[in-house]
Write a structure and sequence with these properties.
The chain is α/β, with parallel strands linked by helices. It comes from Paenibacillus donghaensis.
Length: 204
C-alpha cells in the first residue's frame, strides 16, 4: 500500500467510515511504515482535540443559555379572579354595575331624609311639616310622588300616588284613579329609581 493512499484512508478510519478489509490493510501498513504511523498519531491527537473542544463549547453554550434564561424575569402568574374576569367580561360588567347601583342606593337611602314632593298640580296640595295633604274638594291631575314624608289623601287624584319611605293615608272621601304605592324598602326603592330613570330617558 502506498503512503499517499494510507494517509487518505486514515481520515475515514478515524471517522469510523472505513470498511473492515481496508481497516486491516491500513493497520498492516502502519505496522510496517514509521512515517505513516507518526502521521496517524498526529491525526488521532488532532481529532481527539477537536472532539474535546466541540464538547466543551457545547457545554459552555448550554451553560450560557441556562444563565441567560435564569436571568430573565419570570412571567407573573395571573390571579384566579383576573383570569375569571377576562373569561367573563359581560358578567363582570353587569356585576360591577349592580354593585355601584346598590352602593349608590344605600348612600342615598341613608342620607336622603328631606321631604320631596313631585307632581303636576302641586298648588292643589297642602304641606304641613313632613305631611302632604290633598284636601277634600281638591283634584290633582297627574301623578303625585312623595318621598320621606306622610301623605294624606282626602280629595281626588287622577293618576298614581307613590309614597317612598313614608306613610299613605286614604280617607273614605278620597278617590285615586291610578295605583297607590307605598315603597319603604331599599330594594323596592332602587327598582323604582331605576325604572323611573329609564322612563325619563325614553321620554326625552
Amino acid at each position: 500500500m502506498e503512503c499517499k493512499l494510507a494517509v487518505s484512508m486514515m481520515h475515514d478510519y478515524l471517522d469510523d467510515d472505513l470498511p473492515a478489509q481496508q481497516q486491516k490493510e491500513l493497520k498492516e501498513h502502519l505496522l510496517s511504515c514509521p512515517d505513516c504511523r507518526i502521521k496517524f498519531k498526529e491525526l488521532e491527537q488532532t481529532d481527539m482535540l477537536m472532539f474535546s473542544l466541540m464538547h466543551q463549547n457545547a457545554a459552555a453554550s448550554d451553560e450560557l443559555v441556562g444563565r441567560i434564561m435564569n436571568a430573565l424575569p419570570k412571567p407573573k402568574k395571573e390571579k384566579a379572579f383576573v383570569t375569571w374576569i377576562k373569561r367573563h367580561p359581560a358578567l363582570t360588567a353587569a356585576s360591577l354595575f349592580l354593585v355601584v347601583m346598590l352602593m349608590s342606593a344605600a348612600t342615598f337611602w341613608n342620607q336622603n331624609t328631606q321631604l320631596v314632593v313631585r307632581g303636576s298640580d302641586l298648588d292643589q296640595v297642602v304641606i304641613k311639616g313632613d305631611t302632604v295633604i290633598v284636601p277634600s274638594g281638591h283634584t290633582i291631575t297627574g301623578d303625585l310622588t312623595v318621598e320621606n314624608g306622610k301623605t294624606q289623601v282626602y280629595g281626588e287624584v287622577n293618576g298614581n300616588v307613590t309614597v317612598i319611605d313614608g306613610s299613605l293615608y286614604k280617607a273614605s272621601t278620597a278617590h285615586i284613579s291610578g295605583q297607590a304605592k307605598n315603597i319603604d324598602q331599599a330594594v323596592s326603592w332602587l327598582w323604582y329609581k331605576v325604572t323611573n330613570m329609564f322612563s325619563e330617558v325614553a321620554y326625552r
